[in-house]
Amino acid sequence: MYGKDRDEVHNKWLKLHHQAKKGPVATNVPKLGPYLLSWLEEVIEPNRAPKTYVNYELFVRLYIAPFLGERRIDRLQLREAQTWVNRLSQVCQCCAQGKDARRTKVKQRCCALGRCCEQTPSARTVKDIRDCLRSALNHAIREELISRNVVALVSLPTLRKPRRQRWSSDEARRFLESAKTEDDPLYAAYVLIVVMGMREGEVLGLPDDAINFEASELDISWQLQRVRKRLLHRQTKTATSDDTLPLIDVVTAALKLRIEQRNRDREKADAWIKSNLLFTTQNGTPIEPRNFLRSWATRCRKAGVRYITVHDGRRSCGSLLADLDVHPRVAMRILRHAQFTVTMEVYTEVSSEQTRAALKKLGDSLQ
């Protein structure tokens, strides 16, 4: 141990003995920046989903390394970590990353002109960034480089869940009828989302052999994602997302219609690319997720219904099941939630019609 005087060295010596009683003491501790890079390469990339690695790499590069990268991981203090978290929600990322500065002078509109757009991370993003660093330091504890994780003790901004939108049964019916009437090639995809509660990636990654018309079953175990400029056809994220669900008449009819549409596309195509997917372009290639989102927005406009996200379309399925008094455990299997509490969150979003009826009933009882 080294210090300016004998007392300082003695205190450090006592502290070192105290640490040694708890377990092994690391003699060579890296800085946080290099450690995070090796953690991403050796732990996250080989063992986590590709999208998880992409998100963590982004958090490390933009939010963690610039502020704490030069700090030794065993010398990171709680106060320092708290200051870092507090600062995250105040730093404009357009300024920090030079987004507006990289635009041509004609297109510059905010930070490069001295008008800060205040593009600060949301409370949810700050929590995700903290969770990323906490996970890395937990691994450092397992490697016996540090004895405690100070990042797990920091206080986070209050996280308010956004208010989700949902369709009524009439809006969902108008949306699907509009797609069917115009022979939309994605009609069956919309049915799977609104009626079966499937996720966007699960629909776009649905293989041909997932459909069993004889047994009236649909196997859900694959998804399509764009990660790091590549389209990946991979298994679903968790085992609870996999299931085999029974097909109802409206879904069976929509799937058969989709197969007929694809057969016509194959006959008309000059060069058909076989992808073994149910939903493809007119040339047989997989559908880009962004293009699917644009098609969803266009269909909302043509159907004359409120625009909601694709994920909210899936949530509408859960809300409609609640309106029909379907047991939450049954809805949990249909939606394939990993936790029952997630299903109950959807069930507690009572529709306006039910709220109006309940208030009327209360008012009548008080008259």
Task: Describe what you observe in this structure.
It is built from 15 helices and 5 strands. By secondary structure, it is mainly α. The strands form 2 sheets. A 3-stranded antiparallel β-sheet has the order 1-2-5, with no helix packed on it.
As a percent range, the share of strand residues is 5-15%
Helix share bin: 40-55%
Biggest sheet overview = 3 strands, antiparallel
The count of β-strands is 5
Number of helices: 15
List the strand order in the largest sheet: 1-2-5
Q: If you average the pLDDT, what whole number results? A: 87
What is the succession of H and E elements?
HHHHHHHHHEEEEEHHHHHH
How far apart are the termini?
Answer: 82 Å
Give the overall silhouette.
elongated
Summarize the helices and strands and which ones pair or pack.
Elements: H1 6-22, H2 32-47, H3 50-68, H4 78-88, H5 93-97, H6 123-142, H7 169-181, H8 187-194, H9 200-204, E1 211-212, E2 217-220, E3 222-227, E4 230-235, E5 243-246, H10 249-268, H11 289-303, H12 310-323, H13 328-335, H14 340-347, H15 352-366
Antiparallel strand pairs: 1-2, 2-5, 3-4
Helix pairs in contact: 2-3, 3-6, 7-8, 7-11, 8-10, 13-14
